[in-house]
Amino acid sequence: MTLTLRTITSEEHLAFIRTLPSASHMQLPSWGEVKAEWRTESIGWVDEDSGQIVGVALVLYRQLPKLRRYLAYLPEGPVIDWFDPDLERWLQPMLAHLRAQGAFSVKMGPPVVIRRWGAATVKEAIAAKEAKRLRDIEPDWSEPRAFELADRLRRAGWLQGEDGGAGFGDVQPRYVFQVPLADRSLDDIQRGFNQQWRRNIKKAEKSGVEVVQGGFEDLAAFHRLYLVTAERDHFTPRPLSYFQRMWTALNAEDPNRMRLYLACHEGEALAATTMLTVGEHVWYSYGASANHKREVKPSNAVQWRMMRDAYALGAGRYDLRGISDTLDESDHLFGLIQFKLGTGGEAAEYLGEWDFPLNRVLHKALDLYLKRR
């Protein structure tokens, strides 16, 4: 198969994504509309013999101030055959194309899982207090080809990114937590929850918490809770317009792409979440909750509703997104993995983000700037 690379239309891009079991929502053509502060482009790899598109990517370009030079970012992409023995026939044309577009540096995030740890394995490690990080534990599953892929990228000149700091606030998590849904019944899934999760779900039901699916007009209620959460957890919130743009762009592409859920008690929304679906993969995207009435457990109720709906959609995985790999109970990030462990799912490590400096001087200058921020 001889490959050529060219700019493709959004329609061509989406048509290829629809042939796959799944792909990251950040590699959808509509995601370019969500990231309005970036210039975007869809590119495709074409088999010269058949004329068929065999790989795609959404590229986000961020311009350097006062210069017509760009950071080219492919979040959780490109969508290609990552285990092709001749990987260079995919990556070299991509680098040449991005250089011609004015890129001084390329950042990509291969959607390749290296290792998985089941909830039981992680809990045992926490109880034993012998490991400080997930990477210190023997995994329950690993992908040998992923380690070979990492070596090939290094030999080709790619630099492995650190766990944080992709730049411009768009770094993607290397570690995530997922609940497998395929080949399981809903009863099996709930039995996988720990005792606390099952108790909290029952508590929410007995307290009269009702989880409803919202529409565009309910994003304002979600955002009010999101601002409360941002203040409580000390992060910078996105504006309401960002979520409105996300809803409009994603659901114009597929009416079932983005959903909004609200957990209500006595007529008041206490927790709200967004859910994204691409093929057989469902993501819990954003979550928010009030500071009061936490005893009625709205967050557990809304998660269980989303898992049930994901299951009904035929999803193979329910993705709770990022976690830190810390197992240190004194670490402020430990609560995140502790909450998600209760679902009985599994922690997964991706290959992480990789950089290719097309202009080493500008790449180094950007790297120093980001480290100082």
Automatic annotation (TrEMBL):
Keyword Calcium in annotation: no
Keyword Cell membrane applies: no
Annotated PROSITE patterns: FEMABX
A matching Pfam family: FemAB
Keywords from the named record: Acyltransferase, Cell shape, Cell wall biogenesis/degradation, Peptidoglycan synthesis, Transferase
SUPFAM superfamilies: Acyl-CoA N-acyltransferases (Nat)
Organism domain of life: Bacteria
Family in the record: Belongs to the FemABX family.
Protein name (record): Peptidoglycan bridge formation glycyltransferase FemX
Organism from which the protein derives: Kitasatospora nipponensis
Gene: femX
